[in-house]
UniProtKB/TrEMBL annotation:
SUPFAM superfamilies: 4Fe-4S ferredoxins
Pfam families: Fer4_15
Species this chain originates from: Nocardia camponoti
Function noted in UniProt: Ferredoxins are iron-sulfur proteins that transfer electrons in a wide variety of metabolic reactions.
Protein name per UniProt: Ferredoxin
Classification via InterPro entries: 3Fe4S_ferredoxin, Fe-S_cluster_ET
PANTHER family given in the database record: FERREDOXIN
Upper classification of the organism: Bacteria, Bacillati, Actinomycetota, Actinomycetes, Mycobacteriales
């Protein structure tokens, strides 16, 4: 399972980073990066939480 970011929607507010700092990173230019190529099975609940909590609906799992 991968995390897909719609960068046209992301406003770099860091909600996802707060939920799953091991999977998301914001750099000094407010550019979001997904730091995992695949979500480990035991991290799926937090990935789903990040998707659900993103206020811009910029995340999805595929
Ligand atoms: S929670 Fe959504 S809008 Fe905020 S940084 Fe993450 S992807 Fe972007």
């Amino acid at each position: 399972m991968k995390i897909i970011v719609d960068f046209d929607r992301c406003e770099a507010n860091g909600v996802c980073v707060g939920i799953a700092p091991d999977m998301f990173e914001l750099d000094d230019n407010d550019q979001l990066t997904v730091t995992v190529a695949e979500v480990d099975a035991d991290r799926v609940p937090d990935a789903e939480e990040a998707v659900a909590q993103c206020p811009k609906a910029a995340l999805r799992l595929a």
